[in-house]
Structures are given as C-alpha cells and as structure tokens.
Amino acid sequence: MTEDLHARHRAVLPDWLALYYDTPLEITHGEGRHVWDAAGTKYLDFFGGILTTMTAHALPEVTKAVSEQAGRILHSSTLYLNRPMVELAEKMAELSGIPDARVFFTTSGTEANDTALLLATTHRRSNTLLAMRNSYHGRSFSTVGITGNRGWSPTSLSPLQTLYVHGGVRTRGPYAHLGDEEFIAACVEDLKDLLGHTRPPAALIAEPIQGVGGFTSPPDGLYAAFREVLRERGVLWISDEVQTGWGRTGDHFWGWQAHARSGPPDIVTFAKGIGNGMSIGGVVARAEIMNCLDANSISTFGGTQITMAAGLANLTYLLEHDLRGNARRVGGQLLDRLRTATADNPAVREVRGRGLMIGVELVRPGTDEADPAAAAAVLEAAREGGLLLGKGGGHDTSALRIAPPLTLTAAEAEEGADILAGALRSVL
Ligand code: PMP
After folding, report:
1. pLDDT per residue as tens digits for the range 80-101
2. Whose CA, among 142, 200, 322, 372, lies 20 to 30 Å from 149?
3. Ligand 1: which of 272, 274, 301 to mutate, most ligand atoms within 8 Å of CB?
4. What is the complex's ipTM, to 2 decimals?
5. Which residues contact 187 (CB under 8 A, 6 or more apart)?
6. CA of 190 to the centre of ligand 1 (A)
7. Model-level pTM?
C-alpha cells in the first residue's frame, strides 16, 4: 500500500528528499502523456516527471532500443570503445552549434555542471564564478555553491567564490519596471560593476529560462549582451540547458539560441530529457576547453550502452517528428488558453512561458506577495482533477510549472488547461 510505502520512505530516506502532495503519489506505469498510480488512477502528466520524459512515456521506439541493447549488454566499460556513445556524441556535437565540439557524458545534470565547473576553472585558472540570482544548477558540493535559489542551496560552505548577477527574473527585483532594452542595459551595468571589483571569474553559468526558479525568462538577447562584456574580460559562458534543451522552448533547439546574436556559448550542459527517463547528462565544449585537463578523468557510468541506446532512439524520434515545432504550436495554444481562463483571477499574477515550458505565478490577491500555500493547494486540486503539475519559484515556491512531454496533443493541452482553470477556481 502507498501509505505504508510513505511511512517506510520517511523512516529511511533523508528529510530533505521532498515529496509532492499530502498523500504522495506512487506512479507505477505510463503511456504517452499519461501515468497511472498504484491504485489505478490515471493522470495527464503536465510535468513529464520533472522534464525527464522528453517525448512520451513508454515510447515504443525507446522501449525497443533499450530491450534490444539489454539483450546484448547493459554496459561494458568506459575504458573500451563504445559504439552508441560515439554515435550520440557525434549527434550532440553537431546539434550543439559549438565549433570543434567535444562531448563528455555523465549520469546527471549535477555531474554535467560539476564537469563544466572543473573545465572552466581549470581553463581560466580562477575559482571565481558568476551565476544568476534565483538559479538552480544541482545538488553537489560545487553546484550548490553556484545555486542562487536559497531554498535549494543547503550549505554556504563552497570551494568556489560566486557572485550573483541580475537578469534571470524579468518581473521582480529592482529592474522589473524597465522596458526590455533598459532592463538589459541595467543588467549589463550590474555585471560590469561586479567584474570591476573582483579577480577575473572563470565563467558565467546561466539557465536561459530558470527552471526550478519558476520558468522565468529574461528578454531575448540578454546573454548576447552579457557575452560581449564577458568576452572582453576572457570570461567563459556556460549555458545550463538541463531544462531548456531539445526544443522544449518551441522556437529553438537550445534555450541559448534566443540569445544567439554573438554565437554559441563556450560550454553547454544537458541532462533530463535526452534519455526519456534513462539517466544521461553531458557537457559539450570546444576541444581547446574540453582538453584543458591534464590528468585522466572518466565516469564509470557516464555513457553506458543502455542509456546511450535510449538517448539515440529518443533523439531520432524527436527530430523526425519535429517535436520542437509541436512544442511551439501546442505550447502557444496552451499559453493563450491559460491566459484567457485566468484573466479575471486576481490570484494569478502572470502566465508566462515559451513552447512547452509555462509558468503560472500565484500571489495573495490584491498584493504582489508570493503565495506558496496557494500553489500547493492548486497542485492538490489539479491532482484530484487528474492532472499532474510542477511547482517552483524564487525564494517562495509560488509558481505552477507546466512542462509536459513534447508529443502533447492539442486536445490534451485543452483538457489540461480546463482542469487547471477549474483547480484555480476551486482554490482561489
Ligand atoms: N540544472 C538545472 C537547470 C536543473 O533544473 C537541474 C535539475 N532540476 C539540474 C541542473 C540538476 O540535474 P540533476 O537533478 O539531474 O542532477
């Protein structure tokens, strides 16, 4: 029984391994955009298992590739040649937009960012980093040290010296009243000010759209403007595409491409969706940066044949079915519908997003105060209606996060929007 499992979970797992819902869910299977819990209840999945299910649950093409590979070998060794790893690396290098690209596979987004930090600090001989306020980059000792979202940064002891830059959140903070161009100019001034008062940092790391932070995005071109300043000072740009990669934003394959005026980042990190549930992360960088390490370094499980086979099948499906185009079309419809359905709800401060990455920010009616209790209540009500959502936000978790598998159909988008609008009405 799920209740027993919850008690056992609490008895043996850490308190900080947070669970969603008053009565947590035990998901036992999935198909397409739907999942079922242990009691047999069906849900429309608007969170894709925190964006890990990129295309669809139980996608037959991925299942087939995984079972065929499992029938041969799960993993040999990173010390031997590995055909699916080379093939996926070739695809990633080509898709990355980075010239002379090299790819290193890891098992998670945290480890991908950790590797990016190792590369950047070694290459630039500096342990000073720039990161964005409100950011999230992982849970290891190094990545919590570049995570600006205090709710997800459990220690202030860090081997890195990090300076936090304005710009990841467009609608709150001291520059919120400014228009796009003025906003960018103010953030650039802030960056220059930080750079003027410190040892040269190794890199700026940023999520093009902040994920855990509540799907907030800066005006297009912010990182291009940052890039010009960084380049002059020899500071690298790391784009954390763990949530924004694979066409989720609809307009582009990578989130950084909305800022592409001055070319690709120096380093791109990715994870989550590529394996469609299999644990794959990775780093792409120019050879000159990737090869700056002068000692051996391997990841025992980074690039196992079984995960690479899943990644290849998943990526092929995504490209052949133009799921980026689907994210743009269906995501656009969903955004419009949610905006219309919530237009007269004073608790909805903003419905924002790009493609299939949509945030609904909740406040106490008549104020600008974040309302985490409302977000939690809406999550529960939506679940009652058969819809799974995510939540996130700045220092208070007051935004609903919508990031379904990229095969979402127009009918499913409508169905989910109606359930969500009903949940909002019932609670607020
Ligand atoms: N970067 C971003 C932008 C993320 O959203 C996450 C996970 N939420 C990570 C890094 C860390 O990835 P993982 O949980 O796979 O370690």
Report:
1. 999 999 999 999 999 999 999 9
2. 200
3. 272
4. 0.99
5. 165, 166, 167, 175, 218, 222, 225, 226
6. 26
7. 0.97
